Amino acid sequence: MRIAVTGKAGQVVSSLLERGAAAGHEIIALGRPELDLADPASVARALEAATPNAIVSAAAYTAVDRAESDSDLAHAVNGRGAGTVAQAARTLGVPLVHISTDYVFDGTLDRPYVESDPTGPTGVYGASKLAGEQAVLAAYGDNSAVLRVAWVYSPFGANFVKTMLRLAADRDELGVVADQIGNPTSALEIADGILRVATNMVAYGSPAMRGIFHMTASGEASWADFAEAIFAASGALGGPSARVKRITTADYPTPAKRPANSRLDCGLIARMHGIALHDWPTSLETMMKRLVPDYCASEGGVLD
Q1: Is 125 a catalytic residue?
Q2: What class is the 2-158+185-218+257-279 domain?
């Protein structure tokens, strides 16, 4: 299958390029200058030229804290840009898979969120991603799947796992927030899920395979739990490790307010698409076996 993906260098896009090729798909990553989300004409031209069987809308403004002072750009990319991609997909008549986030919720529930729970983003990033969901479904809701993912890490780009490895190389102890909980999720497994959803949508016209879905690893953790697991796995592989000092959100203020509860219930995507990602400790162990040797072999312990 030929799949066009918006974006060129993000964690999900890079993972799709790797996993798509391994699964026999042709992945066409499109970004600036040929595809600029702020220029609807360029989006339409680039996607039409790609002649895809399906489109994945993965390009996004992901700087959560910077978005608080850069609201216009965040909404232009995550909100209006997502709608532009959906309109182009509608014109081409091919299924669209759009990537969203747990940050569309306010984090106040005492259980994992299901797709029908009321949204209530607490910051600009979440608000812009929610606007993108709404734009996609308004433009092309009859042939789109919105996938909410969370706490993404991978061998690519910047992410929490790589930050922990870098900091542990120079410090014996790190303060890590322990009162925010979620589902740490490998971008490589997210890519596998996206490919499955896209394949299903091309093969089947069922409305039940369209709409909003949650897709994360199973199991839950706080950031401190996640850090401890990273250091345990890294140390066992000869990589950097550090003690974790459990702190509160109040101890580590940030411009954007994060949800205290980012847990997502993934039962719907299991029923409709047959997708169930691995539990997060298993996925992390697999990832660490790849990341730690690369880290140790790289000059100065730097991972690209």
Answers
A1: yes
A2: alpha beta
